[in-house]
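**Fold in tokens:**
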Amino acid sequence: MAQVSAAKESFAALLEESFGSSDSLEGTVVKGRILSIDNDQVLIDVGLKSEGRVALKEFAVPGQPIELKAGDTVEVYLERMEDKNGEAVLSREKAKREEAWTLLEKSFTDQSRVTGIIFGRVKGGFTVDLNGAVAFLPGSQVDIRPVRDITPLMGTPQPFQILKMDRSRGNIVVSRRAVLEESRAEARSELVASLKEGQVLQGVVKNITDYGAFVDLGGVDGLLHVTDIAWRRINHPSEALQIGQTVTVQVIRFNPETQRISLGMKQLEADPWEGVEAKYPPQAKFKGRVTNITDYGAFVELEPGIEGLVHVSEMSWTKKNVHPGKIVSTSQEVEVMVLDVDPVKRRISLGLKQTMQNPWEAFVEKFPGGTELEGEVKNITEFGLFVGLPGDIDGMVHLSDLDWNTPGEQAIQEYKKGDQVKVKVLDVDVEKERISLGIKQLASDPFESAAAGVKKGEVVTCTVTQVTEGGIEVEVGEGFTGFIRKSDLSRERSEQRPDRFAVGEKVDAKVTQIDRGSRKIGLSIKAKEVEEEKSAMAEFGSSDSGASLGDILGAALKRKQQND
């Protein structure tokens, strides 16, 4: 019996040595040799009393073809020594998972990067194959910036950082963003250390705002202001750039303390303002495109990068108080004249009206002084009438040029806006853009015709029209008035009273002055009486001969009555 017992123990030892203990092998990764590949099953010998089968798909690697053949050595996970069919239960996936978990735990502890392949989408993110272990990649951890299409990243090995892992639950969370940020920080430090003004770099447009675009230079952002994109006027950066576009830029300014970087694109092109004075001399005419309209004028592009301003005062000869947008429109092609060039301030003053004939010059050529024409009353002011004339310009009839006899304040009451009136051109001042017109000049001056028959020193008969404290106003003939001052009403001081006269009364007076400016005649009864006295004295003797002044004047009066 003792021999039998010893033999049993010896056989058990041999078995354990040959196959090993199931307790020590089950649940571990073992090496095996591929015996054959039949359809989608791989037969593997792991050194046990029976072989095991593994599905061919378990050997698949995302993005790569399966390359297996008989005789290859592979590692598999031994789940059980044998199943109901007497075969070993093996798993390649679990073997890869076990192997991967061991390596991943080490990487997680060391905070080192791992390589994985994004192969699927799940709620809130994506699945990543880390050499057999499946990890979760949250959507926010894919990239530094939101990625609309992740397709180009799938199936391609990518570096990841393990954020969390729990082997008991089989959970792994990874981040691609953390790796990119780390690389970005390294690149930023290198770039900032070597950055200098004037340096030319390539970058990607990261963001666009109203005032410019932010360009990613590879770990650091720079601002490309809208005025530094191109020499030509750009109203909004989106006119020339789009997000994701690769651009070549130059570092204009760099502040190492704030790490603010100002970039420029136009600085890499020739400055169009060089030699601008020779290219655009004053008085020369050019064609350009309206790029911008403001309250004070319009900007016209003469060539890309060269703009000039047409001030509102230089836009039209006749439209003075009109917004520039009523005269020109954006993108309209116009002809302009160069008025002034300032290359230092990069300013060109342009004129639009100078390319058209001056309507005042055209008017004076066609309608010189003395020309009679007809126009519409455009406006009535306290100092005269504005009349519309050919050439879309206005002329003015001053109050003093409305009527020969009626005061202007009264004469203007007879006109209203819209009336058609005949006028005579009196004067044209092209420089001041003024045209003087007259209405009364259409007829001859009645004062001149009446005054032509009156001579200074002559005695005339006139009619009293008004009695004032200072004298009397009289009408001489037809069409003009005269005035006899109080002191000229009589030779005798006691008779120098205006109240001695009545409106309508006829009086004789001597013409002392003809004032064409005031259109009045100065008269004097006193001067007439003095002259009559001198004449009588000469003819009838002097008072020294014994005759009294009354006798002399009486004789003269009697003679006059007899002659009458």
